[in-house]
């Protein structure tokens, strides 16, 4: 029995050992085969890409990236298909006249030296290489305003896509800083036209011709799918031009393509923060003629408003370019208003001076009164300018007179009472002659009436000046706009 049990245990152990060996071998085989297959396929893929690269750019290929390719049709001239889509307008600096724009630039051409049979390389029909490995056109922005000059491979840094038929596609996201002739006549309600002119600096038109891929784009199509709107400018219209440009350095003309971008400014910022506050300053200035002449704040009030206008002029000067070929409408109007209000301040000082005169009104005042009665009888009916220097009637707001006049009139009344007392009593302790005192009193009464006459006459002149300056403030922008047109 013991031998039988030992044999059974031995056979059982052999069976378990056999199963363990077969299970281990099966797992090793399954694990090894995929790795071998993966390594084989990966090495084949790498070998295929390497073979294409070696075929095109290896030592045996004798390819030189500095040599311009010839056209496939046997012609000498190489055709470059060019396209541009604007991603965003960074800014248009009116003062420096620089146009910052970020755009996607697309170029396509053929190089017959870079062809292969895709079926011989596992169906791979495209590869990507660096922009210095294959020949690339040195198409740059002609009206470049950058301070730093770089080569086309430094500006366009993406790789070049090569197809098996020899077609090369080069797409780049580029930020350009272009010079732009800015017209500031109607700033900030202006429309600017900026050009982006591209061309080669090395190859003339007889060896390389640049053509737009699509010349029928509108303002919506020129904006790429990743277009970011600009808060100040909106693209209104785009135009494409293909032309030849000649330089003094070279006999042959160069092929040049130009994208002309027409933009309209959003003027809401200037309306809100410049024009509306400035108009309020003009309205406030009209109140200078309604401040009482005896109050010393009238001139300081006008000077303060002129200083505020000076700050607006400084703000505009920072926005406008320092050139004289185009006269800006806004700057001209601001300067005209500054001089107009300066004249108004001078006239206000003159009316303040004459409102305190104590002499009789001149005859010219009566002539002006008669003239105004002919023009507008209803407005000047209350103006009474008699030879005695009479004042305006009560309807002309006599309550605006200062306290000094009331005091002077009160003293005159007291003088008359004193004279009457002398007449009744027949004696006077001071020994003054009755007629001398009465003549002096009458002279003071005449001076008081003359003073009041000048005051009321100047108040009337100031009301007329208010109307005149209000009309001029409306006419000045219209006249300036008409002259600029």
Account of the protein in words:
It is a single chain. By secondary structure, the chain is an alpha+beta fold. It is built from ten helices and eleven strands. β10 (233-245) and β11 (254-265) form a beta hairpin. α5 packs antiparallel against α6 (329-354) and α9 (403-425) runs antiparallel to α10 (434-484). It is a multi-pass membrane protein. Residues 1-26 form the signal peptide.
What are the salient characteristics of this protein?
alpha+beta, 10 helices, Acetylcholine Binding Protein, Chain: A, four-stranded antiparallel beta sheet, seven-stranded mixed beta sheet, 11 strands, Methane Monooxygenase Hydroxylase, Chain G, domain 1, elongated, 20% strand, 485 residues
Q: What is the overall shape?
A: elongated
How helix-rich are the residues, as a percent range? 40-55%
Q: What is the mean predicted local confidence, pLDDT?
A: 77
Q: Main sheet?
A: 7 strands, mixed
What is the H/E string? Answer: HEEEEHEEEEHEEEHHHHHHH
Instruction: Please give the radius of gyration in angstroms.
Output: 47 Å
Which structural category do the helix and sheet elements fall into?
A: alpha+beta
For the secondary structure, the number of strands is 11
CATH architecture of the largest domain: Distorted Sandwich
User: What low-confidence regions span 5 or more consecutive residues with pLDDT below 50?
Assistant: 26-47, 386-416, 422-451
Could you tell me the CATH topology label of the largest domain. Acetylcholine Binding Protein, Chain: A
Number of helices: 10
Per CATH, the superfamily of the largest domain is Neurotransmitter-gated ion-channel ligand-binding domain
Which CATH C-level class of the largest domain is it?
A: Mainly Beta
The tally of domains stands at: 2
Membrane topology: Multi-pass membrane protein
Subcellular location: Membrane
GO molecular function: extracellular ligand-gated monoatomic ion channel activity; transmembrane signaling receptor activity
Keywords: Ion channel, Ion transport, Membrane, Signal, Transmembrane, Transmembrane helix, Transport
């Amino acid at each position: 029995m013991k031998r039988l049990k030992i044999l059974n245990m031995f056979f059982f152990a052999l069976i378990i050992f056999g199963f363990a060996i077969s299970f281990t071998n099966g797992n090793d085989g399954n694990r090894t085969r995929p790795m071998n297959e993966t390594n084989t396929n990966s090495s084949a893929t790498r070998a295929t890409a390497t073979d294409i690269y070696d075929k095109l750019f290896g030592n045996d290929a004798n390819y030189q990236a500095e040599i311009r390719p010839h056209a496939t049709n046997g012609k000498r001239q190489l055709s470059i298909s060019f396209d541009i889509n604007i991603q965003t307008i960074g800014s248009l600096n009116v003062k420096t006249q620089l146009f910052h724009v970020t755009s996607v630039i697309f170029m396509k051409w053929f190089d017959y030296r870079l062809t292969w049979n895709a079926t011989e390389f596992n169906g791979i029909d495209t590869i990507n290489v660096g922009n210095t490995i294959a020949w690339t056109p040195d198409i740059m922005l002609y009206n470049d305003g950058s301070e730093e000059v770089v080569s086309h491979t430094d500006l366009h840094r993406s790789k070049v896509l090569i197809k098996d038929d020899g077609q090369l596609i080069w797409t780049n996201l580029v930020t350009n800083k272009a010079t732009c002739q800015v017209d500031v006549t109607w700033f900030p309600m202006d429309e600017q036209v900026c050009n982006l002119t591209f061309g080669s600096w090395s190859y003339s038109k007889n060896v390389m011709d640049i053509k737009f891929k699509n010349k029928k784009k509108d303002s919506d199509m020129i904006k790429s799918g990743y277009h970011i709107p600009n808060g100040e400018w909106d693209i209104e219209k785009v135009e494409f031009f293909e032309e030849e440009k000649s330089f003094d350095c070279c006999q042959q003309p160069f092929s040049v393509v130009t994208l002309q971008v027409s933009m309209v400014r959003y003027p809401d910022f200037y309306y809100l923060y410049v024009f509306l506050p400035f108009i309020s300053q003009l309205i406030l200035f009209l109140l200078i003629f309604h401040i009482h002449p005896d109050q010393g704040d009238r001139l300081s009030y006008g000077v303060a408003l002129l200083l505020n206008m000076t700050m607006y002029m400084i703000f505009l000067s920072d926005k406008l370019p320092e050139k004289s070929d185009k006269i800006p409408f806004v700057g001209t109007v601001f300067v005209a208003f500054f001089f107009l209000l300066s004249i108004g301040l001078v006239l206000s000082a003159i009316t303040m001076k004459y409102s305190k005169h104590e002499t009789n009104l001149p005859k010219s005042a009566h002539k002006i009164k008669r003239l105004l009665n002919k023009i507008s009888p209803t407005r000047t009916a209350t103006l009474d300018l008699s030879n005695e220097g009479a004042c305006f009637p009560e309807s002309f707001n006599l309550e605006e007179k200062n306290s000094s006049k009331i005091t002077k009139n009160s003293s005159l009344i007291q003088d008359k009472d004193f004279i009457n007392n002398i007449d009744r009593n027949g004696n006077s302790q001071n020994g003054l002659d009755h007629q001398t005192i009465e003549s002096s009193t009458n002279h003071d009464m005449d001076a008081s009436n003359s003073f009041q006459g000048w005051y009321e006459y100047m108040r009337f002149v100031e009301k007329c000046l208010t109307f005149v300056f209000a009309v001029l403030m409306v006419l000045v922008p219209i006249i300036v706009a008409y002259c600029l047109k």
